[in-house]
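Here is one such tokenized protein:
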Amino acid sequence: MSRRRTLSTKKKIALLVSAATVAGGGAFALAATSNAASVQTAQTSVACQGLATALGNNLNFIADQKAHPDSQSAARIANREAVVAQIKVQQQASGCAVGESAQGSQTGQQAATQPAQSAPAQAAPAAPAQSAPANNAGGGAATGQQVCNGSTVTLSGEGGAPAASSNQFPAGTKLKVTNLDNNKSTTVQVTSVSGSCVLLNNAAFEQVREPGKFLIRRARIEKVG
């Protein structure tokens, strides 16, 4: 009788230890899952803020053009409306609130000369890259590599020295844009965020445009710095 009671006690201890181990493992798994979810939520929040800022910039530009129109305002507005539509597509693909626009976004010339503070580390790119063609190298492209294959290029309507805006490359990136219809090229620095791979400002677009055209359908884009 004494032997049976001793074995029973040992079994009970073993069962208690096993139960504690299982419970501890479950708690660890739950903690790991919670941490991963928190990281993913933070990344999504940053991407959504970048897209909201880009949308705000473009909506403000359109409003300014409508309030102070000139001979090129219609073309600029049409271009920016296409950009707005693309940003909304990216918001939906990224799980953001479609149409959400950040308050206090830059307007007019500010957007051409100052990098957006909440620009995606490309686009964005982390965010913009999600809806970009698979053959786009984006911000991780090597110097001298051709990027954004198949992308069209148009003008942003912004003034200042030749420059570009992009949803895939961070401010400071240098891009060479060649119009394959006339073999004219320009090398520009990215200064702000947009909803396209590359938008050229007025001065840069004038260097490669064909007379009377506001869109380059056949373009070669290279990352050069």
User: Anything to note?
Assistant: The first helix runs from residue 2 to 67. The radius of gyration is 26 Å. Residues 104-137 have pLDDT under 50 and may be disordered.
